[in-house]
Amino acid sequence: MTNIALPAAKPANPNFSSGPCAKRPGWTLEALSDAPLGRSHRAKVGKAKLKLAIDLTREILEIPADYRIGIVPASDTGAVEMALWSLLGARPVDMLAWESFGEGWVTDVVKQLKLKDARVLKAPYGDLPDLNEVNFDHDVVFTWNGTTSGVRVPNADFIPADRKGLTICDATSAAFAQDLDWAKLDVVTFSWQKVLGGEAAHGMLILSPRAVERLESYVPAWPLPKIFRMTKGGKLIEGIFEGETINTPSMLCVEDYLDALNWAKRIGGLKGLRARSDANFKVLADYVAKTPWIDFLAKDAATRSNTSVCLVVADAEVKALAADAQAAFAKSLASALEKAGVAYDVGAYRDAPAGLRIWAGATVETSDLEALLPWLDWAFASAKAGLKQAA
């Protein structure tokens, strides 16, 4: 980097990682002082905390009363795996993939479960598959918001109300920031460390009555590990969805999730969370609109994520470079921002096109994103100057 003048101010919180994400504004360790550490999660106090986490999740996400909500192991990944291994195989399945996590679910279904009636609908980073091609007589697996591409489905209008198959939705960077249409979704999963900035390793699994009916009427042809088993004697194990977790949860992490949920209530619940994410995205969208050197990876404005905002370098001179040089240029921007202490963990995901990925979820302060923008210009100008010197 060359000696270009530094912007005057820095973001108060430089944590713009897309997971684990920034803690809520004002968070301190004191917020976790009520955690029942050293106690069993099966003790009355532990079960009460877990049940409260489920109840607050239902309240804030406005989940229908007849949907089950469970706390499960292994983050969003564990929740999705439980759904895939427990529910698929009864019908053909359509797998939608347009970024790395969707590709991961394709691998599970095609190469691990080896389902012969699996149809894969793919799109490159920046686009969605043709949603009109989805067959809803099949089960359908998709991510609502592509965390590594910044591309989301604009709404659930593409899902028919009279579908015959189940819709299994990985919503980990969408829940609490985007409008999930529960009537169109049979399985929804997410993790605590995204929009609410919670801690890792715990997932949420939400089941519609249709999904429960499938669990109680269908037995997969393959063995299920203990942590995937949700039925016993052909009936749903209701305790899982009342706070009796399959394995031992961290009560410290549970306390942190409760703190985040209570913060969400204080700022207006789902409406307040979505408004904060939308306001943060607008800061970045307005910047991109007036800044020639940068653009969204998501080509269609209607599909751009308001949480995991993926950006690419659009400068003509940089785009004329070889692919590895373009990647090195983008990495140099993220590195410079980190060294300056203004933005941590904002490089593109390893499998995604080179660029920047800036988290704009509800726990990020709009003022911090506004303070970041001049630093983006500084990093780009410095890197471009370095290119000219090298030439």
From TrEMBL:
<dbReference type="InterPro" id="IPR022278">
    <property type="entry name" value="Pser_aminoTfrase"/>
</dbReference>
<keyword id="KW-0028">Amino-acid biosynthesis</keyword>
<dbReference type="InterPro" id="IPR006271">
    <property type="entry name" value="Pser_aminoTfrase_methanosarc"/>
</dbReference>
<keyword id="KW-0032">Aminotransferase</keyword>
<dbReference type="InterPro" id="IPR015422">
    <property type="entry name" value="PyrdxlP-dep_Trfase_small"/>
</dbReference>
<comment type="pathway">
    <text>Amino-acid biosynthesis; L-serine biosynthesis; L-serine from 3-phospho-D-glycerate: step 2/3.</text>
</comment>
<keyword id="KW-0718">Serine biosynthesis</keyword>
<dbReference type="InterPro" id="IPR015424">
    <property type="entry name" value="PyrdxlP-dep_Trfase"/>
</dbReference>
<comment type="similarity">
    <text>Belongs to the class-V pyridoxal-phosphate-dependent aminotransferase family. SerC subfamily.</text>
</comment>
<keyword id="KW-0663">Pyridoxal phosphate</keyword>
<keyword id="KW-0808">Transferase</keyword>
<dbReference type="InterPro" id="IPR015421">
    <property type="entry name" value="PyrdxlP-dep_Trfase_major"/>
</dbReference>
<keyword id="KW-0963">Cytoplasm</keyword>
<protein>
    <recommendedName>
        <fullName>phosphoserine transaminase</fullName>
        <ecNumber>2.6.1.52</ecNumber>
    </recommendedName>
</protein>
<dbReference type="GO" id="GO:0004648">
    <property type="term" value="F:O-phospho-L-serine:2-oxoglutarate aminotransferase activity"/>
</dbReference>
